[in-house]
């Protein structure tokens, strides 16, 4: 199976788990806490499958970069959290870094 499929699944589960972690209110709510733990567990399993084919640094850069953007959007849309200009610039730089790695680095070839 395509390792990017595993990576996409890991990213989606990490974003869901992080959202549930926020909803767990400091792990005081059982349902969201268990959901977060399960989501992270499967997420890391899928990430480990990804790293069989994609170099660790590349996989992690994509996973963390896309995860940051998605969880920031969830924070804005679901939790009504606002980002200021420096935060948006920082997220933009993270996205630019992930693009540079994937488009220009020979490390991403496998």
Automatic annotation (TrEMBL):
One of its GO terms (cellular component) is plasma membrane. Belongs to the drug/metabolite transporter (DMT) superfamily. Small multidrug resistance (SMR) (TC 2.A.7.1) family. Keywords: Cell membrane, Membrane, Transmembrane, Transmembrane helix, Transport. The keyword Cell membrane applies. The keyword Ribosomal protein does not apply. This is QacE family quaternary ammonium compound efflux SMR transporter. The chain crosses the membrane at residues 6-23, 30-51, 57-79, 86-105. It comes from the Bacteria. One of its GO terms (biological process) is xenobiotic detoxification by transmembrane export across the plasma membrane. It is found in: Cell membrane. GO terms for molecular function: amino-acid betaine transmembrane transporter activity; antiporter activity; choline transmembrane transporter activity. Its main location: membrane. It is a multi-pass membrane protein. InterPro entries: EmrE-like, Small_drug/metabolite_transptr, Small_multidrug_res. Pfam families: Multi_Drug_Res.
């Amino acid at each position: 199976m395509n390792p990017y499929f595993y990576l996409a699944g890991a990213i989606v589960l990490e974003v869901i788990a992080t959202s549930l972690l926020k909803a767990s209110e400091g792990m005081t709510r059982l349902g969201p806490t268990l959901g977060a733990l399960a989501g992270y567990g499967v997420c890391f399993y899928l990430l480990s499958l990804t790293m069989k084919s994609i170099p660790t640094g590349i996989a992690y850069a994509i996973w963390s970069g896309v995860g940051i953007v998605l969880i920031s959007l969830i924070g804005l849309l679901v939790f009504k959290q606002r980002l200021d200009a420096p935060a948006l610039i920082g997220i933009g730089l993270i996205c630019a870094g992930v693009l540079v790695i994937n488009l220009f680095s020979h490390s991403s070839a496998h």
